[in-house]
Write a structure and sequence with these properties.
Layout: H1 2-37, H2 39-60, H3 62-88
Helix pairs in contact: 2-3
Length: about 90
C-alpha cells in the first residue's frame, strides 16, 4: 500500500507540475498576443526606432541626409507643379 500511495503522490505532483507549466506557457502566449494586437504601442516603438536611426544617420553623414531630404522636396514640388499645370489644361 505504501508504494501505491507514493505512486499516487508522485502522479499528483507531476500533474500539478504540468498544470503550472501549462499556466506559465498560456500566460506567455497571451502576453505575446496582447503585444501583437497593441497597434498604438507598436507604432510608437517603430516611430522611436525610426527617429533613432535618422538621428544616427544625420550625425554620421549630415550632407547625405539633407541631400536626400532636399531631393525628396524637389520631387514633391515638381509633382505638385505638374498636377497644377495638368489641371489648368
Amino acid at each position: 500500500m505504501t508504494a501505491d500511495g507514493s505512486d499516487k503522490d508522485r502522479a499528483l505532483s507531476e500533474i500539478r507540475s504540468d498544470i503550472e507549466v501549462t499556466r506559465q506557457r498560456l500566460a506567455q502566449t497571451l502576453d505575446e498576443i496582447e503585444e501583437r494586437l497593441d497597434v498604438p504601442k507598436r507604432v510608437k516603438k517603430a516611430v522611436a526606432e525610426g527617429r533613432e536611426r535618422f538621428d544616427t544617420m544625420r550625425e554620421d553623414n549630415p550632407a547625405l541626409v539633407y541631400g536626400v531630404l532636399g531631393g525628396a522636396a524637389a520631387v514633391v514640388v515638381g509633382l505638385g507643379a505638374l498636377v497644377i499645370r495638368g489641371a489648368r489644361r
